[in-house]
Design goal:
It comes from Formimonas warabiya. Helices cover about 35% and strands about 15% of the residues. The chain is an alpha/beta fold and about 325 residues long.
Length: about 325
Amino acid sequence: MQLPALIIDKIVAKIPIIQGGMAVRISTSRLAAAVANEGGIGVIAATGMTPGELLKEIRAARSLSSGVIGINVMFAVRDFALLVKTALNEGIDLVISGAGVARDMYKWGIEANTPIVSMVSSAKLASIAEKLGAAAVIVEGKEAGGHLGTDRSVREIVPEVRQAVNIPVIAAGGIIDGKDIAEAFRWGANGVQMATRFAASVESNASQAFKQMYLNAKHEDVVVIKSPVGLPGRGLRNVFVDRLCNNEDLSPEACDGCLKKCGRNFCILDALANAQRGNIDNALVFCGEQVERIKEILPVKKIFENIKAELAGLPAKEATTI
């Protein structure tokens, strides 16, 4: 199968793959640039960063790649507007947002001549996003990692969204290899978003302990927890998750007010930051439903090479785990 380019407004990605924006500081400039250099869309996760950090990461990515670089920022964070405007003022190629809808962000995108891409979980939400001004929608099914907006499979939702909107539709959740991508195009997708596969890459900013958890993961290790954001979240079972599931009091002693609304059952940013740093026993390690299929930590270039081989009907090239 020959992959078509992904066109989102004025943005053209030669390879229709968006790298998921994984917070906190998993998806930084090195990973985003590596994906952009292969022809995909590299994404910096702005959630959990200060505006100064985000600016530094965008500029670092630009110094490493002339490809398409975007940001992903969760609507639920208090600094949402500041982070989006920081990226727009710096000339980011596109902005991706989920966990809620801010009507103003579409206006900001139009003013900056920058596409705004919304993450949705139903045809109804996709249609609303298109009417508000979204240049494309990322349709995330139950197979996805991180925060979940549905209990339905992406394979069910994408065809419905394709019928409901006229903008590009990107499938997300459970996309690991070339065969998954080919299937997503059969559903009617114009592209795919891959997060879990790129979290387990050499260029990912995740700790080695985080990546090793992915390699060790079994199907029964993947669980869904209640996030303070107000949505369920999918991650890997560990000491922290067991404590959470046993209803232990993990509420933070101090609160920075990072979320607009917070369930306060634990500090989501602290838990995700611990995962990135390798403090695994006190971490929330987000992952997709298909994480058990990942057996190697590979460079981004090798991941793309394998995908192209799989789409051509060839076996993935042999590589050594790093």
